[in-house]
Amino acid sequence: MDKVYISQLHVETIIGVYDFEKESKQSLYFDIEMLTDISAAAQSDDINFALDYAKVSERVIEHATAKPVELLETLLEQLAAIILAEFNTQQVTIKVSKPAAVPAAKTVGVEITRVKS
Ligand SMILES: Nc1nc2c(c(=O)[nH]1)N=C([C@H](O)[C@@H](O)CO)CN2
């Protein structure tokens, strides 16, 4: 299967468990991989047959900034469900990094893979 991907998509949003995290935005970086068959897009040279990474990026930013949650896990499950429901992909892997969360670490985060049922 082919893959369309988005690397290091930057989103500024309210997220976190602790009270101080609910007062100011933090940076998140998303890496997203979506399995899809690119043959129709390649043969037609038509964006309407492609899994549009720009539209996926817009949707991820829209959702991730819409309603605060505490855990990265919660946000990733929501985003995976949205991508599988709204875009032509059979499997999505999303990794989110929260670089300011642990000062002693370069970054921390969570990665999930979900398949369309
Ligand atoms: N597995 C997780 N661990 C932690 C999370 C999280 O979302 N998933 N969040 C926090 C805090 O919000 C942290 O980012 C603040 O230091 C801690 N651990």
TrEMBL record:
<dbReference type="GO" id="GO:0005737">
    <property type="term" value="C:cytoplasm"/>
</dbReference>
<keyword id="KW-0289">Folate biosynthesis</keyword>
<dbReference type="GO" id="GO:0046654">
    <property type="term" value="P:tetrahydrofolate biosynthetic process"/>
</dbReference>
<dbReference type="GO" id="GO:0016853">
    <property type="term" value="F:isomerase activity"/>
</dbReference>
<dbReference type="InterPro" id="IPR006157">
    <property type="entry name" value="FolB_dom"/>
</dbReference>
<keyword id="KW-0456">Lyase</keyword>
<comment type="pathway">
    <text>Cofactor biosynthesis; tetrahydrofolate biosynthesis; 2-amino-4-hydroxy-6-hydroxymethyl-7,8-dihydropteridine diphosphate from 7,8-dihydroneopterin triphosphate: step 3/4.</text>
</comment>
<feature type="domain" description="Dihydroneopterin aldolase/epimerase">
    <location>
        <begin position="4"/>
        <end position="114"/>
    </location>
</feature>
<protein>
    <recommendedName>
        <fullName>7,8-dihydroneopterin aldolase</fullName>
        <ecNumber>4.1.2.25</ecNumber>
    </recommendedName>
</protein>
<dbReference type="GO" id="GO:0004150">
    <property type="term" value="F:dihydroneopterin aldolase activity"/>
</dbReference>
<dbReference type="Pfam" id="PF02152">
    <property type="entry name" value="FolB"/>
</dbReference>
<dbReference type="InterPro" id="IPR043133">
    <property type="entry name" value="GTP-CH-I_C/QueF"/>
</dbReference>
<comment type="similarity">
    <text>Belongs to the DHNA family.</text>
</comment>
<dbReference type="GO" id="GO:0046656">
    <property type="term" value="P:folic acid biosynthetic process"/>
</dbReference>
<dbReference type="InterPro" id="IPR006156">
    <property type="entry name" value="Dihydroneopterin_aldolase"/>
</dbReference>
<keyword id="KW-0413">Isomerase</keyword>
<comment type="function">
    <text>Catalyzes the conversion of 7,8-dihydroneopterin to 6-hydroxymethyl-7,8-dihydropterin.</text>
</comment>
